[in-house]
Amino acid sequence: MEMKRNAEDNFKKLKMISISLDKIQNDFCTLSEAIDVWKDLLDFFEKNCDSSEIEKLKDRYDMAVTPPHFLANMLGPKYNGTRLSEDESDSALQYVYSYHPNVLAEIINYQAQCATFKPYLFNSDTVNNISPMAWWSALFKRKLISNDLNTLTMQLFTAVCSSAGIERLFSSVGLIHSKFKNKLGRRKMLKISNRF
């Protein structure tokens, strides 16, 4: 019975990990969403695992996420950095101060939801049904944010958090353009790859 319980517990853990991996390896998962997926996984492990497993996951978390991840989560209107710890928020702002100091004031105004960032912009219906990139683009088109902040947000929200899509592409091309088919031209190879 104990072996059965251990197997069931391990199955639950592995299932949660596989769901998280599927979300993160999605071609459209952004850096801000990745933080939310990691936080869900950490919450699950804290409720269902022992301290050694939690520590291993936290070590993995520390290796996987960086200050730009935290900044993307902070600037994502859907997430707004609500699940970030104080240290994570500080590292995101330190990153901005080090590499983009000219937009730090605008980011602080964004966090405080003052000046150009009116409360109606953060309506849950709005932020849940629009991409962060579209949200920030709309503010830029209305000339409510600077070009520098627009450039930073576009970089953060067009970056995908996983290289899985690229790896799938190389794998597909590897099947088509093999050692035996190395004389295929670019056009013919693209025609064949469109079949996959």
Automatic annotation (TrEMBL):
SUPFAM superfamilies with a match to the protein in the record: Ribonuclease H-like
Annotated ranges, domain ETS: 35-97
Source organism's superkingdom? Eukaryota
UniProt cross-references to InterPro entries, sorted A to Z: Ets_dom, RNaseH-like_sf
One molecular function GO term is: DNA-binding transcription factor activity
Output this protein's name: ETS domain-containing protein
Q: Which species expresses this protein natively?
A: Macrosiphum euphorbiae (potato aphid)
